[in-house]
């Protein structure tokens, strides 16, 4: 891909000279050729990890800094062409900004810390595996439930049982794919159950408090535009608020500056098949779409789960 050409100079005639454009292209190709040389020296070229690519980018930066410095010097010491316009230099300086690790790269070490966590010995000894989260690290929406159940503990992914299937339907009705949002829980381990008993239990306040820093870090890295808390336990884990869902749902809150919508957990809708309750959840999702300034068609406005 060729670099964007300068659009003009501050205080000038609004047009860049051919020489000015050529300088910008020359700088771009110098850095590109430098990158090719670096790539040719990297062993095992079949597949470069994101870390190697990041390191190569860091190696390019001194070359680009040198070019920018030279162009600035030409501009300051000469009133004649060829010289770089302010626009050209601004574009090059933006290109020279260092690129940090991606959100996926930031989540990877956190996932590993969760995988080996033993802060709750009773949960660490009873779990099959931890359930970190799933979805896009660049998601606009982050759904947060309470804790993994038996299906999630077995598969290592949140919301994969019947409640998860209903959540996926809700996400699709909103106009998203499951892979485009992010789904996590307050607890990363399935709460242990007495031997011989079935079903799931809610996390204790102590368990939620112990696991909460992991979730806070996930949210900080992903930076969703909206958080959706699924059920009263998720609300307590996030906001420290206790109350009935009848009082809590459908209202906007904030979590560390991020808008947070409270709605019923999908498992509640499986137990209570009332159309009016399902409609309430959908009305909450319409509020989320409006908050995100997403278009809402007539079919969506009249939709029932």
Characterise this structure:
By secondary structure, the chain is α/β, with parallel strands linked by helices. The protein is built from 13 helices and 6 strands. It has helices spanning 18-41, 50-77, 86-95, 103-115, 121-126, 150-155, 162-173, 205-222, 232-239, 245-248, 266-271, 275-291, 298-301, and strands at 134-135, 141-145, 182-185, 226-230, 252-255, 258-263. Strands 1-3-2-4-6-5 form a 6-stranded mixed sheet, sandwiched between helices. A hairpin with a 2-residue loop joins β5 (252-255) and β6 (258-263). α1 (18-41) packs antiparallel against α2 (50-77) and α4 (103-115) runs antiparallel to α8 (205-222). The chain is globular, with a radius of gyration of 26 Å. The relative contact order is 0.10. Residues 1-21 and 34-53 have low confidence and may be disordered.
Indicate the low-confidence ranges by residue numbers.
Answer: 1-21, 34-53
Question: What structural class results from the helix and strand content?
Answer: alpha/beta
Helix count from the secondary structure assignment = 13
- Radius of gyration using CA atoms only: 26 Å
For the termini, the CA-CA separation is: 45 Å
The H-and-E topology, N to C, reads as HHHHHEEHHEHEHHEEHHH
Tell the overall outline: globular
What fraction of residues sit in β-strands?
Answer: 5-15%
User: How are the strands of the largest sheet arranged?
Assistant: 1-3-2-4-6-5
Largest sheet: 6 strands, mixed
Number of strands: 6
Helix content: 40-55%
Global mean pLDDT: 81
